[in-house]
Amino acid sequence: MDIKTLYDANINNITVAKNAYDALFTAFGQHIESWQHEVVDRLTNSHWTGTASGHAHTRIQFLGTELQAAKQELGLISKALSDAAEGIAAAQSHLVSALDEAKSNKMTVAPDGRITWDNDPNSANYAGDKADATAQAISKRITAALTEADHADQTISARLSHLSTNASNGTGLDAATAKSDQDAANALSQIPAAGTDPNSVKAWWNGLTDAQQQRMILTNHDKIGNLDGIPTVARHQANLINLQRGKEDLQRQLDGLGPEPVKTLATLNGQSVKNPAYDEWKRKHDALDDKMKGVRAIEERLGKPVDADHPPTFLLGFDTKGTGRAIVAVNNPDTADNVSTYVPGTGARVGGSLRSDIERSDLMVASANAANKKAGDPSTTSSITWVGYEAPQSIFPEAAWDGFAKAAENNLHNFETGLRATHEGKPSNNTILGHSFGTTTVGYTLRDKGLPVDNVILIASPGAGVEHASDLGVDPSRVFAAQGDKDAIKYALPEDPDNLASNLGNNVAGSFGYNDNPDHHVAFGRDPSVSQFGAQIIPTSPGTDHSGYWDQNSASLIAMGQAIAGKPIS
């Protein structure tokens, strides 16, 4: 598709053709009704019997089925033409808008897309000192419009070619074929259910025209934004709407609480009597306010001007149900060479530490970039903060129970599979990185579902549900683990009482030199940071506690970046 072809496209001709097929569809339906009344009904009421009658009735019934199939196929041609008009019109509108902007900025767009302008500050047609950046932005819009038109053209051409072939070779008269074609057409407007295989979701999305995709984003943003297999940019657009709607809903709920009640009702025997209404109001208020802080953290990161320290950010998931869901990507994972998903642990939610979790993704991208730069590698990196599950909100009793990790397995598996489905070009080098209880979530998913990742990083782990790195289904040489010298996670007691007794006995014996292979069990399996687990150890700086692994210039942050970038740990 070139600029002139799209600019000159006469959408009205497609609409006229569509209307003609509508008229043909209506007339054909009327002929079927007449045939039913004049032929089928009369024959049925004729009381004709015998062998010849049986053959005639069978043939007429079969012919009726063929006519209905043909009518169904005619209707699908009309729908395809309607989608074609809509898709090409949208692309044409985007092209015209870009060309108009070029004209308003005193620029000329050549038929091949090259943009020229006057650089003389003394000229009446001077395009300004920011002309180069403006021209680049306009060029991208033109390219996007042409790509959009190409996609619409190819998609509709394939549909019309299929229906035309059916009509010419007679397969369109088959009821099963017509039903299959109708189901395929219906599927274009039916959003796959949550949990659908992301590869199927991506195939469905690719079958939509650009105009249909945009309509889905605008009218079904709550489903599209959180559906694995939808490309990053589309999810981001949908989730910007979800974020605004969620913020408005939280504010309505806050306003609906009314003014703060009095804390105490009276004084009895010198003691204040608490007001139950205040306690209930405060509980609800604090929970809503915490989520609102999470919303503001996302808004602030999305709104930061793009620079070396703050790459572009994409919102891949958001809702406020339960403790909330937030998936934020630093850089586009669909186009990055290295893609890391960071799964935080206890306390992860929309609110809480979400701001610092997103900052950790920024730091890991910067660290990976530094590792690449040192190696002379131009590869790009995306780091995703994945709060896509109900994480435990307390160390005890919630984080002492592995049910939260088990409940997250399907969500994490689908998300990682979706990253593979939507990635463009050469497959990326993918890393899954968990912190604290997040490592348990990661480990359980790897163990029970498998994940399409190249590297696994377990930071401050209370156990990943396995005894050895090889049990995670990933090359053990690409499994990394770290535990700081001041991190209390090493004291996380085993959930299984049998492991507790065995662990204490073996470790005590090991400390006195009586056991060369102590169990080293923590809450959910063997400690990944011990040699018996078989992971590659990530170095940590002296004094590293449970949250210190991302401190600037720390040994652990440098090593995480190297692992994410696929470089040797130094």
Structure in words:
This protein is α/β, with parallel strands linked by helices and 570 residues long. The chain folds into two domains: 3-187, Up-down Bundle (Ferritin), CATH 1.20.1260; 244-564, Rossmann fold (3-Layer(aba) Sandwich), CATH 3.40.50.1820. The chain is 53% helix and 11% strand. The protein is built from 15 helices and 14 strands. The chain has helices at residues 3-8, 11-44, 51-104, 131-169, 175-187, 198-206, 210-219, 221-224, 232-256, 276-303, 354-374, 403-422, 437-448, 497-511, 555-564, and strands spanning 107-109, 115-117, 264-268, 271-274, 313-319, 325-330, 338-343, 381-387, 429-435, 455-459, 479-482, 521-522, 525-526, 536-537. Helix 11 (354-374) crosses helix 15. The longest helix has 54 residues, at 51-104. The model has no long low-confidence stretch (mean pLDDT 90).
What's this model, at a glance?
By secondary structure, the protein is α/β, with parallel strands linked by helices.
Q: Count of helical segments?
A: 15
Mean pLDDT: 90
Separation of the first and last Cα atoms:
50 Å
**SSE sequence, one letter per element:** HHHEEHHHHHHEEHEEEHEHEHEEHEEEH
- Helix fraction, binned, reads 40-55%
Radius of gyration computed on alpha carbons: 31 Å
Regions with little confidence, pLDDT below 50 for 5+ residues? none
What overall geometry do the principal axes of the alpha carbons give? globular
Helix-strand category: alpha/beta
CATH class categorisation of the largest domain: Alpha Beta
Largest sheet, strands/sense/barrel: 8 strands, mixed
The name of the CATH superfamily of the largest domain reads: Alpha/Beta hydrolase fold, catalytic domain
Please provide the count of β strands: 14
CATH A-level architecture of the largest domain: 3-Layer(aba) Sandwich
For the biggest β-sheet, the strand order reads 5-6-8-7-9-10-11-14
Q: What is the third-level CATH name, the topology of the largest domain?
A: Rossmann fold
